[in-house]
Design a protein that fits this description.
By secondary structure, the protein is mostly helical. The protein is built from twelve helices and five strands. Strand 2 and strand 3 form a beta hairpin.
């Protein structure tokens, strides 16, 4: 980590804003497509935790700032306006119905397995919760910490490649159409944002060819339209959920942080 660099500066901001420090550590249990993970301090926990994938632990500055950006946005909102995001039972019911009503997945034992349904459900909700706000964080990093541009670009390139795996025929053959629209629509919005930001029009071509550019454009237009301040993050998630047919998949509740 760069001494007195952006990561140090942002971690100090987190400590000042939240009253707790951030502990950063490598985590060998993270899957290959998860470069970092944030755990917000709750209850008596003395610190927030950012876990970093061992493959990038030597140069974690961008990933630390990115994860810390979620903390800064959360705590920039007044305490009585902070809300927790939690799954509603209707989410799993909907995914199960998608699987049961889709001819190409109806008889696939693996997809009918509750663990697979759970995987689809939790994955889509995680994507919905993190991707639109994550683009806000990336926009902030790009503008306020240009010295992280190289590391940000490497992480973005890796994410674009990982996201594109969902376009492979073998994946599309075993996924309900509704799940593909939601997940690949969000991935298309991510690609469209970086296409215009980094002048990379080629990253959108696969989504256009597969028919997901339209929903990606709708999501990005929504992202552009909604105010960029942290106080609008929940509304941004709600707007994406409405476009994706996921509005009844979750609920907001009063934050349970001390």
């Amino acid at each position: 980590m760069m001494k007195n660099g952006p990561a140090d500066q942002v971690l100090q901001l987190v400590r000042e804003r939240t009253g707790r420090p951030v502990h950063v550590e490598p985590d060998h249990s993270l899957p290959s497509n998860v470069l970092a993970k944030l755990d917000v301090a709750r209850g008596g926990s003395p610190f927030h935790r950012i876990a970093i994938h061992p493959s990038v632990i030597q140069k974690p500055d961008y990933l630390i700032v990115y994860q810390a950006g979620f903390l800064l946005r959360r705590f920039a909102v007044l305490p009585d306006q902070r809300r927790d995001f939690s799954e509603h039972p209707r989410a799993e019911e909907t995914v199960r119905r998608w699987v049961e009503n889709t001819a190409r997945t109806r008889n696939l034992a693996e997809l009918m397995n509750p663990r697979m349904i759970r995987f689809l459900c939790s994955g889509l909700l995680s994507q919905l919760r993190s991707m639109p706000v994550g683009l806000r964080v990336d926009d902030w990093i790009r503008k306020d910490y240009p010295e992280l541009e190289g590391l940000q670009r490497k992480a973005v390139d890796r994410q674009l490649n990982d996201n594109a795996a969902g376009l492979q025929p073998e994946v599309q053959r075993v996924m309900p159409a509704e799940a593909l629209r939601a997940s690949l629509g969000m991935n298309a919005a991510f690609a469209l944002y970086w296409a215009r930001t980094l002048d990379l029009p080629q990253v959108v071509i696969p989504y256009r060819a597969a028919g997901f550019e339209k929903v990606g454009n709708a999501l990005l237009e929504c992202w552009d339209r909604i105010p960029s301040g942290p106080e609008a993050d929940d509304a941004l998630v709600d707007a994406w959920a409405n476009l994706l047919g996921m509005a009844d998949w979750y609920r907001w509740s009063e934050e349970h942080l001390p």
